[in-house]
Amino acid sequence: MPRTDTGPRPAPPARDSPPHGHDRVLGRVVLGVTGCIAAYKACEVLRELQRREVDVHVVMTAAATRFVGPLTFEALSGHPVFHDQFALGTDSDIRHVSLADDAEVLLVAPATANTVGKLARGIADDALSTLYTATRAPVVVAPAMNSNMLEHPAVQENLEILRSRGVRVVEPGSGHLACGWLGRGRLAETDAIVDATLAALVRRRELTGETVLVTAGPTVEDIDPVRFVSNRSSGKMGYRIAEAARDRGARVVLVSGPTSLRPPGGVELVSVRSAEEMARAVEAHFEAATVVVAAAAVADYRPAAPSTDKLKKGEGPLALELVRTKDILRGLGERKGERLLVGFAAETGDLLARARDKLTGKNLDLIVANEVSTGFGGDTNAAVLLPREGDPVDVPLASKREVAERVCDEIVRLRAPAREPTPTGPVAS
Ligand code: PMT
Predict the structure, then answer these.
(1) Which of 57, 115, 215, 304 is the most exposed, having the fewest neighbouring CB atoms within 10 Å of its CB?
(2) Residues 54-68: pLDDT tens digits?
């Protein structure tokens, strides 16, 4: 709550103190304010978050300080405002890193086209953009700008990049804009921004205590030292699931076939090549896992007798004998215990019927059914989530990160009974 006294302003509390005498806070949000006329509305957002017991720290861009003075945010938040990376202060820590570490959610409201562009492209040249690149916290962005700026392909592309990274974009509203226009681009309503921020705070803890084992990518089955049998999986779907589960607080082990993707930070990556290696790696981590998500496209067949020498070509055709690999997920289904097993099914026809067969045949709790044409390779996907019990969930074409979020929503729902607190405390497995 804001102070109402008129006496001398007390010294701001130390960085770790909760605001205004609260012993317990729901969480800590860093509010990034950027330079547009809607900057004043950030004061209202701040106060609404405080009413929900959220401890808010404020970071401002230089342009934002021309619309609202840092003193206003300092007085409201009860914390020093970070706006000058190079200011000498009493803290000897590096402010953008310590605040980035402490943040449980980074909310940027209002976000100008300039800041959206910087965040999307990794430009880190001021207090807010350096903090964004340094934080692992979920990020919520509420853009506000002129309609033409908002609709500009560059801005739309930058917003899409942010969404594909899991950033929650609170859509701007329509109405009278400060520039005199009537159109889309107004900062979203305070309630919508606060709700999205609180949802991100809650979501951040939804899988705390869970160990999520994810498989991703293709497997590669060698024919000889230079040739192999594989498939078109890029690994993107599995990597996005690993990131989404990590961002909800889970410990994540990612068993990945060969991909060209950057390993997600904060995830234990186990790199494998063949189906046999994947089976061994999954086995090694199955005991500790409470949730398994099998997004990998595992080879069903491998060459019966891989050659250590390069095969010589002859004149006629060459017959390659293939033998079945082990079905990793089916094996896990036979001894799943209390674990939650999530499979994937990629098909070119009869998608739902085949997915249902796999759901029951492999003793899964949930299967993600996607078409081969949309699932393999690209950055987007569309899917139907089929739980063993309950209604199917349709996920229309969206970024793979968005699809991963919907899969995680289902995991959270299905794990809820196992996570109910008991008299001796919460059960994680
Ligand atoms: O990597 P991307 O380019 O992003 O593409 C993602 C994807 C299309 C590969 C992914 O979304 C997907 O659908 N993965 C499953 C592909 C598949 O064809 O699965 P399947 O029908 O062969 O197998 C069904 C399930 O059993 C899968 O969860 C699979 O991981 C698992 N399985 C299959 C064979 C095997 N030997 N062991 C297994 O564990």
Answers:
(1) 304
(2) 999 999 999 999 999
Residues 6+ apart with CB under 8 A from 392: 352, 384, 385, 386
Q: How far apart, in Å, are the Cα atoms of 378 and each of 3, 163, 208, 232?
A: 52, 15, 30, 10
Cis amide linkage into residue 423, ω under 30° from 0: no
Specify the CATH number for the domain of residue 255.
Answer: 3.40.50.10300
Question: Could you report the per-residue pLDDT of 243-274, keeping only the tens digit for each?
Answer: 999 999 999 999 999 999 999 888 999 999 99
- Which residues span the domain enclosing 284? 211-301+324-419
Task: Tokens for 360, please give them.
Answer: 């029951």
Residue 377 vs residues 164, 213, 218, 235, 240: alpha-carbon distances, Å: 15, 21, 11, 8, 13
Residues 92 and 45 placed together within one structural domain of the fold: yes
For 217-239, the DSSP string reads SB--EESSSS-EE-----SHHHH
Task: Give the binding-site residues of ligand 1, using a 6 Å CB cut-off.
Answer: 215, 217, 233-237, 275, 294-298, 300, 325, 327-329, 343-346, 358, 370, 375-377
Check whether residue 137 and residue 227 sit in a common domain: no
Supply the pLDDT for residue 101: 87
CA distance 345 to 356: 9
Is position 139 within any domain? yes
CATH code of 114's domain: 3.40.50.1950
CB 115 within 8 A of CB 57: no
Residues recognised as catalytic? 179
Q: What amino acid is encoded at 268 in this protein?
A: E
- pLDDT tens for 17-71 read 444 444 446 899 999 999 999 999 999 999 999 999 999 999 999 999 999 999 9
Centre of ligand 1 from the C-alpha of residue 208, in Å? 26
Please choose from 298, 362, 367, 380 the residue to mutate so as to test ligand 1's pocket, defined by most ligand atoms within 8 A of CB. Answer: 298
Ligand 1 atom showing the smallest separation from residue 231 Cα: 9
Check whether residue 235 and residue 185 sit in a common domain. Answer: no
